[in-house]
Specification:
This protein has four helices and five strands, in the order E-H-H-E-E-E-H-E-H. The radius of gyration is 15 Å and the shape is globular. 34% of the residues lie in helices and 26% in strands. The chain has a single domain, classed as Aminopeptidase (3-Layer(aba) Sandwich), CATH 3.40.630. The chain is an alpha+beta fold. Strands 1-2-3-4-5 form a five-stranded mixed β-sheet, sandwiched between helices.
């Protein structure tokens, strides 16, 4: 098992592998994006200068999990923080500690880079994920997130 920070700019092989993995995650949405649209977004996030980052978990030469996040500045944080958009492990590779290893690697990197915190959201009924986050020192922030497509 290898956990690594995806180098920017990413090559086509890496972008394709991340696209395949994230399509599995996105198919759980009520209206998942088209593969081409998702690939273009992943490619954009892996361009030099973009505020997004990926960490990948690789097993036997294949990406089986990833963490995707954006860098932001928080007035309440007093500096830079991370917003964890996705933490995903392929279904057949779950319950092996891969998500924990990914998140620990992101935490290590964020601390070394001087980030002030990490925020995320998870489903209200996702008990396994909530246990993982709580075990690593995350805590509940009571809020309601809103969005609007432009």
């Amino acid at each position: 098992m290898r956990i690594y920070h995806v180098t920017k700019p990413a090559d086509d092989t890496t972008i394709d592998a991340l696209t395949t993995l994230m399509m599995e995650q996105m198919e759980q949405l009520s209206s998942p994006p088209m593969r081409e649209e998702l690939r273009a977004t992943i490619a954009l996030s892996l361009e030099d200068g973009c505020a997004s980052e990926f960490f990948a978990a690789e097993k036997k030469g294949e990406i089986v999990g990833c963490a995707f996040f954006n860098k932001g500045v928080g007035l309440d944080k007093g500096g830079y923080y991370l917003w964890l958009n996705e933490l995903y492990v392929r279904k057949q590779d779950r319950k092996q500690g891969i998500a924990r290893k990914l998140l620990l690697r992101v935490l290590q990197w964020a601390e070394a880079e001087g980030f002030k915190g990490i925020e995320l959201e998870t489903g209200m009924n996702n008990e396994a994920t909530k246990r993982l986050y709580n075990s690593l020192g995350f805590y509940d922030i009571v809020s309601k997130r809103y969005g609007r497509t432009l």
